[in-house]
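Contributing: when you submit paired examples, paste them exactly as shown. First protein:
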Amino acid sequence: MPQIFPMNWLFLSLIIMLMTFLMTIYFYFLNLKNKNKMKNIQKMFYKFNYKF
């Protein structure tokens, strides 16, 4: 029984990594299609960096 839990955690971590990877690709293609949104996101990142 104890060997099942690490496998489940490994699969969960892989699923989370895949989801984040797909989200980054999705936002990347959205930015390529809409350059105005990309400029707004760059402004948001600039403000975010300015806070820190």
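Second protein:
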Amino acid sequence: MRKSTQAQPARLYNCPMSIHVLYDGWDLAYRPHSPAALHLLAILAHLPADVQASIALPKAVTFALPENASAVIEETSHTAGDKLAWQQNKLAKVFDQVGADLLHLTQAQASLFSNIPTVVSPTGYGNASRSGGFAARLGEALGKGGMSTVQAILWPSDLPKPEDVNNLYELPPIVHPDFEPYQHYHPPEIPELELPETYLLYHGAEDEGTLAQLLQRWSWGAGAIGEYYPLYLVGLGEGAKEYVERMMPDESVRCLAVIAPDSLAKVYQGCSALYHLGPVSPWGGPIRHMLACARPVVGLETPEMDALVGPAAFLVPDGDERAFASAMISIVVNQEIYEPVMKAAYTRSEPWRNNDYGEKLVEVYTDVLGK
């Protein structure tokens, strides 16, 4: 992403001590398009200068990391069992190695057996993105058990609060500064990717049930717009890509290759609209990124979506597949719908670009360490 020292001037918030925070970079290494990875980069972009940041990575990454964070690599393979070991043991090893004061996770999975001061910013799509296998299920169960012991759970102040959650802190919503309104009058220039003049995005849950719903809806709309507006699916794992290619071997549906996070911002800016099915990610989700780029969203009517987007999206009732397919078409061919939604997206996301998130975050860190 854009270097944090450029995106955000150094600011001091009268923190009573210099705090050293270790951030979990598993998803940044293995799923750089995931909400967990994108929100981590957003945190670092808004991080005050008086916080020392280290990122624990299971492998080296091929893209530039923010200048205000140092990387510590603890080589770990990308398997469910190795991820379980990472969550339950290896993060604690890196924590001790760097002498950090606090651990900040961007997934709702914490070590069950650790006494490390821990802050969690929940991301992801709940059970919709749950992976299979015994080790993965065990890791999820242990992670949820560990969540009961974390010192702080951070929650965006514009979403309904979860019930019966202890140690909940509300913070202003943020996105990375790279996700900003920018009008590309030609496809964005991305070295590793050749994009058409116009295209649409899906970036969300990748379980087979959600993808099947998406492809069913797209099959009704592709005949009208698919030739001129192909649908790019972002952030899919290999299993999900194989499923899409098997279920819909059509030129109008394409799986986006893994690219650097700063290039992903350009992909968002250049697209015509985002389609979203399934749950909303509290932090780091595609809906926030799309609205921040002043682009329209087509989604389902849910309390979370209503709270997040307001008038800045084209929402249809859940279960009405034909209405969703119609919205897919209308958002790109009807300027009377497209332009008001685009303007509302800009207005809705404006407070996310300049707020006191960094100051509030330091207050949480200080409070946790004072407990």
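If you have annotations for the second protein, write them as plain sentences, like these:
The first helix runs from residue 4 to 7.
DSSP finds 13 helices and 13 strands in the chain.
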